[in-house]
Amino acid sequence: MKDTPPFVVLISGNGSNLQAILDALPGSVSAVISNQPQAYGLVRAQQAGLPAIALPRLPEEPRRAYDTRLVEQVAAYQPAYVILAGWMRLLTMNFLGQFPGRVINLHPALPGTFPGTHAIERAYQAFQRGEISHTGIMIHLVPDEGVDNGPLLATAEVPIYPDDALETLEERIHTAEHALLVQTLQKILATL
């Protein structure tokens, strides 16, 4: 493993997946960047003694121009991998092309189901309609601008119970996300 921490983590919100990484894999994260300046995940990064960078999109800024600015921030840390842990922006090839095969996304749905935002809510609604009996999570590479459909690194099924409220299902999925993300990153660290 090289001397600098191998992961830069991109977040947009609370940062609970970031916290799981920080707790289980200390010393593996070199910086945390958020497109949302008020994201609590930036506080988590500061508490861990990490660079916590707020990089909001400027008014009228094209996506590709934003992604070029994001590349500059991320590349400064020379990460082996960029981890999208609750990053709620679609990345363009301006960013992805700079880190080929090295951008990893966590998505709270199984492959081919519920891509994009509100995946847990949409799975819960599908369960209520009798269309599915379970949901899950996946961790995958992000090779291009496709949404939640890159090469798989890991998946896990998450049951949905008849008496679940949406909040109960969300909690179960987040618990599964934390475990699967840490396991997957441990495997990656073992190869560096």
Explain the overall architecture:
The protein is of the alpha/beta class. It has one domain (7-191): Formyl transferase, N-terminal domain (Rossmann fold), CATH 3.40.50. It has six helices and seven strands, in the order E-H-E-H-E-H-E-H-E-H-E-E-H. The protein has helices at residues 16-24, 40-47, 63-75, 93-96, 119-128, 166-191, and strands at 7-11, 29-34, 52-54, 81-84, 103-107, 134-141, 152-159. Helix 1 crosses helix 6 (166-191). It is globular, with a radius of gyration of 16 Å. It starts with 6 loop residues before the first strand and ends with a helix. 35% of the residues are buried.
What is the CATH architecture term?
3-Layer(aba) Sandwich
Q: Estimate the global geometry from the Cα principal axes.
A: globular
Q: Which regions contain 5 or more consecutive residues with pLDDT less than 50? A: none
Measured distance between first and last alpha carbons: 5 Å
Helix content: 25-40%
Write down how many β-strands occur, each being a DSSP E stretch of 2 or more residues: 7
Mean pLDDT comes to 94
**How do the strands line up in the largest sheet?**
3-2-1-4-5-6-7
Fold-level CATH name: Rossmann fold
Q: Roughly how many Å is the radius of gyration?
A: 16 Å
Structural class: alpha/beta
Summed up, the domain count is 1
